[in-house]
Amino acid sequence: MSKIALSPQHGVNPSLEQCFYCLKDRGVVLFGHLKGDQKAPRRACVSMEPCAECAGHMKRGVVLISYRVGTESDPYRTGGWVVIKDKAISKMVTKKELAEDILKRRFAMVPDDAWCALGLPGIVPARAMHCANMRCENFEEEFMIPITRSEHTANISGEASVHCVHCECILQGGPVQYIPDPGVSDARPDDCEDA
Ligand SMILES: [Zn+2]
Ligand SMILES: [Zn+2]
Questions:
Q1: pTM across the whole model
Q2: pLDDT tens-digit profile of 122-154?
Q3: Alpha helix positions (H), 61-194
Q4: Which residues have a beta carbon within 5 Å of ligand 2, which is an ion?
Q5: Less Cβ around it within 10 Å: N or C end of the chain?
Q6: Ligand nearest to the CA of 63
């Protein structure tokens, strides 16, 4: 074991170490003295080494993780997480070099909109909606509502309007965001999925 310099304030200065891919805790990492005697973060990813479980997934396929568009420098994970067979990656990614790179790295971050366009499970488009009726108890309160197609306009992809549960007026919508699919538990698949 290598020696660490203790922090005067925080001693061995521990963090819970997370697996970069599944974000599950897998041990403790000791930072000791950090610049400016900072306190170590509560959780930290310190390597790209997968945990045993993720390493198993990567033997059988490629791990895909969804993230919010516009957060590329520090990707915000929206909750989509699947293991895809190698041959499905080659089918999905038409640029040959990119497909080869993904197959080599055994994982890829996929933006939400592409994720849904590919028909991958785990996240759904939704809108932050609010009641605009000033006299309503729910006035301006926001609800995240999954986007559903109207049964009357299914062929022209119209969205169903959502009514306020309190005053029954039609809720006003904000921009589309992606949220974890409320119809799916967050259990991760043990087997590769064919896409
Ligand atoms: Zn993991
Ligand atoms: Zn209302």
A1: 0.78
A2: 999 999 999 999 999 999 998 888 888 777 665
A3: 86-92, 96-105, 112-117
A4: 131, 133, 136, 138, 164, 166-167
A5: N
A6: 1
